[in-house]
Amino acid sequence: MKIFSKEQIYKGDQLTAEKQNISSTELMERAGTQIFNWIHQRMQGAQVPIHVFCGIGNNGGDGLVLARQLVNYGYNVHIYVVNCSEKRTKDFLINYDRIKETTKKWPIMLNCEADFPEIGPDDIIVDAVFGIGLNRPPNEWVKRLFQHFRASKAFTLAIDLPSGLYADKVPKDENGVVWADYTLSFQSPKLVFFLPDTSKYTRQWEVLDIGIDLEFLQQTETEVELIGKNEMLTIYKPREKFSHKGTYGHALLIGGSHGKMGAMILSARGTMASGAGLVTTFIPKCGYIPMQSVVPEAMVLTDADDEKLTSITFDIEPTAVGMGMGMGLDQKTQHAFQKFLKSNEVPLVIDADGINLLAKHKDDFKLIKPQTVLTPHPKELERLLGSWKDDFDKLKKAKAFSKKYKCILVVKDAHTITVFEDKLYINSTGNPGLATGGTGDVLTGIITGLIAQGYEPLTASLFAVYLHGKSADIAVEDYGYQSLTASHVIDYLGQAYLDLFAKPQVQQKQEEKSGNS
Ligand SMILES: NC(=O)C1=CN([C@@H]2O[C@H](COP(=O)(O)OP(=O)(O)OC[C@H]3O[C@@H](n4cnc5c(N)ncnc54)[C@H](OP(=O)(O)O)[C@@H]3O)[C@@H](O)[C@H]2O)[C@@H](O)CC1
Ligand SMILES: Nc1ncnc2c1ncn2[C@@H]1O[C@H](COP(=O)(O)OP(=O)(O)O)[C@@H](O)[C@H]1O
Ligand SMILES: [K+]
C-alpha cells in the first residue's frame, strides 16, 4: 500500500475535485460522512456522550460534517470549536453555517482552559482539531486541552491524524499531541504511525476510502510503501514440479564463535525453512558437532581455529552468503572478514558482528558491494550511522548511506523499514514476541535463503521480513508474547508461507456452505 506524502495528499484532493467535477466542500462532505458511517455502524444510535472538538481548518471542517450527521441521527453530541487562530478555511465556514441550520445547540467556542468541558471516562472524544495542516506547535492552552482529553480516559477517535502530530516530523512535546485510541485516516496511513518516536500517538488506525481519483492513486510514485500480503503475493515464486535441490540455490552462512554457535544454528535452520536447496555453514571447529547434530540438513565447513574464524576459504560455489551471526570481533576474525569482503562476488547479507566490524573500521565501508543487504538492529544502526536527532533524521541518514554504497539497509524494529536509496518499505507483520535473542539470526537466514533461491536482494529482504513477522504472528497464538522463541519463528515459517494463499475466513465459510471448497 502506498503511503502518500502531505504534498501528494493535497494534490490528490485537488485533482479529484477537478476530475470528478466536485467542490472541495463536497469532498469534505464525503470525508465526514465516511467517519459518520464508521461510528454509526458501531454505535447503532447508543446515547453515549460524543464530544466533537473541531479546529478552524479543514480537519475541523470534517469534524463539523460528522457532528451535523450525528445530530441528524439523534446522537448525544456536544460540538466545540477550538478557537486557536483568527483564520478559518472556506470549507470550515461553510460547514459551520450548515451546522447552525441543523441544530439550535450551536458549537461552543473554546478560548482558554476555563472553557474546557467535563468529559467522563465512558464518553467518546472525536479529535478534529488539526490534521496534516499543522505547521507549528499548538498554543499552551490547546496543549492543555489535549492533556485534558488524556486525563479523561475517554475513548479518543482522531480524524486523519492525532492532532498535534505532524505528517512529516516528530513533535518535541508529547503533551502537545492527542493520544488517540483509534485514527481514521484519509487516502493512506501516515508514515508517523509506524515510527518508534510517534507510533504511540495512535493505538490503531484504519484508512477510509473517500473516492480519491483512481488514476492518481495508481500512477503516483510514493517514497514510502507499506508491505503486506498483497505486495508479497506478486513476487512469490512457486516451487516447480520438475525441480531439484540444485534449482533452489546453495546458501553459505559464515559466522559463529565459542559460546555463540546458537546464532549460526538458528540462521541455518531459518535458511533451510525458507526453501534453499542446499545450506553450508562455515564455522570455527568447536561448532562442528553441535551443527551436525542439530541441523543434519546442513553441511559444515570449519575454520582451522577452534573458537573463532581466522581464514575464510572454501571450495564450494554458493549462490548467496549470509555472514556475521555470532562471529565475534577478534582481530583475526576482522582480517578474515575484510579479506573475504575484498574477494567476494556472491550476493551478500551482513548481520550482527559483520555490521559491528564494519562500524569499527569505517574505511571498510568502501568494500560494501552494490546490492549487499545489511540487517542492523537499532544499536547496530547507530554504530553504523552515528546518532540521530529523531526518526526522520535516522531515515535521512539511512537513505544517504544506502545511496552512497548502493546497499539495502534492513532497519529492524517493531515495524522494520527496509531502505533502498530513496525508498522506504515498511513491514506490517510481527509482534513484541520477537523481542527475544536469536530472532534476528533467523531473519538473516531467511533473507540469505531467499536470495539463494533467485529472489533479488531487495525483494528477498522485503519478503523475508514479511514472512518472519507473519510466522511470529501465527506462533504467538500458540505461545503468547512471553514464551515465543526464535526457534518457533522457524517452526512456523511454513504456516507463514501457507497463509499467503489462505482464503479469508468469511469467503471460506461461504464456499463450504455452497460446496465449492
Ligand atoms: N483527501 C484528504 O486527505 C482530505 C482531507 N481533508 C481534511 O483536511 C485536513 C487538512 O486541512 P488543512 O490543510 O486546513 O489543515 P488543518 O490540519 O485542519 O489545520 C488548519 C490550519 O490551522 C493552522 N495551524 C497550523 N498549526 C497551527 C497551530 N499550531 N495553532 C493554530 N493554528 C495552526 C494552519 O493555518 P495557518 O494559521 O498557518 O495559516 C492550518 O492550515 C486533513 O487532515 C483532513 O482532515 C478533508 O476535508 C478532505 C479530504
Ligand atoms: N517489539 C517488536 N515488535 C516486532 N518485531 C520485533 C520487536 N522487537 C524485535 N523485533 C524483531 O525481532 C528481530 C530482532 O533482531 P535482533 O535484535 O538482531 O536479534 P538477535 O541479534 O538476538 O538475533 C528483528 O527482526 C526485529 O524487527
Ligand atoms: K485530528
TrEMBL record:
Subunit-structure text: Homotetramer.
Residue numbers binding K(+): 59, 127, 163
Record key words, sorted: ATP-binding, Isomerase, Lyase, Metal-binding, Multifunctional enzyme, NAD, NADP, Nucleotide-binding, Potassium
GO molecular function annotations of the record: ADP-dependent NAD(P)H-hydrate dehydratase activity; ATP binding; metal ion binding; NAD(P)HX epimerase activity
Function: Catalyzes the epimerization of the S- and R-forms of NAD(P)HX, a damaged form of NAD(P)H that is a result of enzymatic or heat-dependent hydration. This is a prerequisite for the S-specific NAD(P)H-hydrate dehydratase to allow the repair of both epimers of NAD(P)HX. Bifunctional enzyme that catalyzes the epimerization of the S- and R-forms of NAD(P)HX and the dehydration of the S-form of NAD(P)HX at the expense of ADP, which is converted to AMP. This allows the repair of both epimers of NAD(P)HX, a damaged form of NAD(P)H that is a result of enzymatic or heat-dependent hydration.
Pfam families attached to this UniProt entry: Carb_kinase (PF01256), YjeF_N (PF03853)
Residue ranges of domain YjeF N-terminal in the record: 9-218
Enzyme Commission number(s) from the entry: 4.2.1.136, 5.1.99.6
Cross-referenced InterPro entries: Carbohydrate_kinase_pred_CS, CARKD, Nnr, Ribokinase-like, YjeF_N_dom, YjeF_N_dom_sf
Binding positions ((6S)-NADPHX): 58-62, 131-137, 160, 263, 326, 377, 441
Entry-linked PROSITE patterns: YJEF_C_2, YJEF_C_3, YJEF_N
Gene that specifies this protein: nnrE
Cofactor(s) of this protein: K(+); Mg(2+)
The family this protein is said to belong to: In the C-terminal section; belongs to the NnrD/CARKD family.
Name assigned to this protein: Bifunctional NAD(P)H-hydrate repair enzyme
Lineage top rank: taxon: Bacteria
Catalytic function, reaction form: (6R)-NADPHX = (6S)-NADPHX; (6S)-NADPHX + ADP = AMP + phosphate + NADPH + H(+); (6S)-NADHX + ADP = AMP + phosphate + NADH + H(+); (6R)-NADHX = (6S)-NADHX
Positions of the YjeF C-terminal domain: 228-500
Biological processes annotated in GO: metabolite repair; nicotinamide nucleotide metabolic process
NCBIfam families per record: yjeF_cterm, yjeF_nterm
UniProt keyword annotation of Lyase present: yes
Cofactor binding annotation: Binds 1 potassium ion per subunit.
Binding site for AMP: 412-416, 440
UniProt keyword annotation of Nucleotide-binding present: yes
Organism: Gelidibacter maritimus
